[in-house]
C-alpha cells in the first residue's frame, strides 16, 4: 500500500513537471523569441520543476532534460552533450575527489580538533573553532553537505552531548542549539567565499561567462575575502547575543579536543601528503593563471598526486557518488543555460525587463534586483534550482541597467550561497542540521531572517567599499 502511494506521488510530481513543460511548449512565444529558444525554455523549466518536486533524483531529471532536448530536435546531440566537456565542471568533480582524501585520512577532523583545543574554552570560541575548520576546508570540499554533515556535525553532536545538551529533553539551549546555528550560518558564508566551496558556484560562473563575464578562482576569492571574514566574525557574535547558549564556559571542550588529538597521534604519512596537496592547490589556484596553469589543470594534478601516492585508490574515485552525480546534473544545467543564452532568450529578457528600470540609475536598480533574487529563495529547496532558473536573467537585467558586469556577476554569485540562511530546506546542510532537533522551526526561520539582513548589510556595505577599492565598480 505504501509502495502504491509512493509510486502515485512520483507519477503526480513527474506529471506536473511534464505538464508545465508541455504547456509552455504549445503556448506562442513572445515577439522577438524564436520557436527554438521558446522550446528550449519549456524543456529547461520542466527540468527545473522536476528538480524542485523531486519525482526522481536530480541527475535523473537532468538526463530527462537532455533526452527531451535532443529527441525534439531543439538542440543537436553535440550541443546537448557539450556540458560534459566543460572545464569548470571538471574542476568541481576533481575537488570532490580531493575532498575524499581530506575526510578519509582524518585530516579534516584533526584540523577541527586543533582549532577546538585553541579556541574552545568558551562556547563562543567553540563556535568560532568550528567555523575556522569550515573555512580551511572550504576551498577543497565543494560539497557543503559533506563539510557540515561529515566533518562538523559529528563534532558538534559529540561536544553538545558531552555538556548534557540534547534535543527534545529541554537541554538543547545549553550548548547544542547555538553550535548548530553558528555552524550552519558559517557554512554558508564559507561557501560564498570560494568558487570551489559549493558545487553550484561554477554553474553561476559558467552562466556569467556565457554573458561575457569571466570569473576566475582568484577573482572570486579576492572579492569575497573581506566581506566573508567580517561575516564570519560578526554572525556568530550576533547569534551569541540574540540566541545565547546557557553554558558560556566550555573548558572541557578544549580538553576533549586535546584528548582526541592524543588518540589520533602524530600526523600520518597520508595526512601529510593530503595537506601538501591541498597547499599546492591553493598556490596554483591563486597564482597559476599568470603561469598558464588553469585551475582545473591544478585540480587534476592534485588528484594525480593523491592517486600516485596511494592516499586515494581508484575504487575511492569510482565510489565518490557525489562527484559523479554533480557531474551529470551540473553538465546538463550548464548546457541548457548556455543554449538559452545562445538562442537569444536571455538577451530578450534582459532588454525587456531592463527597460522597466530606465532612468532609475544602475545602483538602486541593482540593489533592488539583488534583494529580489536573495529573498525569492524562500520558494526554492536548493541552491542549484535557484541559480539555474534565476541567475542568468537577473544578471542579464543587471548588466542591461548599467551595473558593472563583473560586480553584478559576483554579488549574485555570493548571494547564491547566503540566501540559504532563510529556511530549513534551502540548502543541503539545512535538513541535516535542523533534523538534529536542537532548534525549533520558528526559531530557525526567525534567526535565518535576522542573519540574512546582517549578511546583506555586510556584503553590500563593507563588501561594496572593498569592491570599490579593488576597482570592481
Radius of gyration: 23 Å
- What is the first-to-last residue Cα distance? 60 Å
Helical percentage = over 70%
**Sheet/helix structural class:** mainly alpha
Residue-averaged pLDDT = 88
The biggest sheet amounts to: none
Oligomer: single chain
Estimate the global geometry from the Cα principal axes.
Answer: globular
**Count of discrete alpha- or pi-helical segments spanning 4 or more residues:** 22
Q: Can you tell me the residue ranges where pLDDT is under 50 for at least 5 consecutive residues?
A: none
Q: β content, as a range?
A: under 5%
Overview features:
single chain; 473 residues; mainly alpha; 22 helices
What does it look like?
It is a single chain. By secondary structure, the protein is an all-alpha fold. Among the domains are: 80 residues, no CATH class; 235 residues, no CATH class. The chain is 73% helix and 0% strand. It is built from 22 helices and no strands. The N and C termini lie far apart (60 Å).
Amino acid at each position: 500500500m505504501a509502495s502504491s502511494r509512493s509510486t502515485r506521488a512520483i507519477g503526480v510530481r513527474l506529471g506536473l513537471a511534464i505538464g508545465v513543460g508541455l504547456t509552455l511548449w504549445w503556448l506562442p512565444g513572445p515577439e522577438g523569441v524564436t520557436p527554438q529558444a521558446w522550446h528550449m525554455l519549456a524543456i529547461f523549466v520542466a527540468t527545473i520543476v522536476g528538480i524542485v518536486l523531486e519525482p526522481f533524483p536530480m541527475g535523473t531529471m537532468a538526463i530527462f532534460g537532455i533526452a527531451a532536448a535532443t529527441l525534439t530536435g531543439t538542440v543537436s546531440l553535440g550541443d546537448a552533450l557539450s556540458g560534459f566537456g566543460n572545464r569548470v565542471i571538471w574542476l568541481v568533480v576533481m575537488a570532490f575527489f580531493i575532498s575524499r582524501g581530506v575526510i578519509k585520512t582524518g585530516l579534516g577532523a584533526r584540523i577541527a580538533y586543533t582549532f577546538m583545543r585553541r579556541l574552545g574554552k568558551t562556547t563562543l570560541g567553540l563556535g568560532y573553532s568550528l567555523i575556522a575548520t569550515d573555512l580551511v576546508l572550504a576551498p577543497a570540499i565543494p560539497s557543503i553537505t559533506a563539510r557540515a554533515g561529515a566533518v562538523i556535525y559529528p563534532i558538534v553532536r559529540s561536544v553538545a552531548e558531552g555538556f548534557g545538551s540534547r534535543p527534545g529533553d529541554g537541554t538543547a539551549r545549553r550548548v547544542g542549539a547555538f553550535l548548530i546555528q553558528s555552524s550552519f550560518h558559517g557554512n554558508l558564508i564559507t561557501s560564498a567565499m570560494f568558487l570551489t566551496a559549493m558545487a553550484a558556484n561554477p554553474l553561476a560562473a559558467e552562466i556569467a561567462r556565457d554573458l561575457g563575464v569571466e570569473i576566475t578562482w582568484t577573482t572570486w576569492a579576492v572579492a569575497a575575502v573581506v566581506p566573508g571574514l567580517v561575516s564570519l566574525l560578526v554572525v556568530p557574535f550576533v547569534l551569541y547575543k540574540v540566541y545565547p547558549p546557557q553554558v558560556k564556559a566550555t573548558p572541557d571542550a578544549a580538553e576533549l579536543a586535546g584528548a582526541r588529538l592524543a588518540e589520533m597521534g602524530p600526523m600520518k604519512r597520508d595526512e601529510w601528503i593530503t595537506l601538501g596537496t591541498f597547499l599546492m592547490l591553493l598556490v596554483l589556484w591563486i597564482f597559476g593563471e599568470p603561469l598558464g596553469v588553469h585551475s582545473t589543470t591544478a585540480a587534476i594534478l592534485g588528484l594525480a598526486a593523491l592517486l600516485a601516492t596511494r592516499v586515494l585508490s581508484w575504487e575511492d574515485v569510482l565510489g565518490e557518488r557525489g562527484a559523479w552525480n554533480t557531474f551529470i546534473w551540473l553538465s546538463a544545467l550548464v548546457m541548457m543555460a548556455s543554449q538559452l543564452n545562445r538562442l537569444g532568450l536571455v538577451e530578450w529578457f534582459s532588454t525587456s525587463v531592463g527597460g522597466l528600470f530606465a532612468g532609475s540609475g544602475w545602483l538602486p536598480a541593482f540593489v533592488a534586483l539583488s534583494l529580489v533574487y536573495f529573498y525569492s529563495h524562500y520558494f526554492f529547496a536548493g541552491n542549484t534550482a535557484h541559480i539555474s532558473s534565476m541567475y542568468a536573467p537577473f544578471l542579464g537585467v543587471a548588466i542591461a541597467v548599467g551595473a558593472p558586469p563583473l560586480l553584478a556577476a559576483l554579488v549574485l554569485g555570493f548571494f547564491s550561497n547566503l540566501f540559504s540562511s532563510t529556511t530549513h530546506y534551502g540548502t543541503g546542510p539545512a535538513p541535516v542540521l535542523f533534523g538534529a532537533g536542537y532548534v525549533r522551526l520558528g526559531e530557525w526561520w526567525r534567526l535565518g531572517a535576522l542573519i540574512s539582513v546582517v549578511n546583506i548589510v555586510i556584503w553590500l556595505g563593507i563588501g561594496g567599499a572593498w569592491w570599490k577599492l579593488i576597482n570592481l565598480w
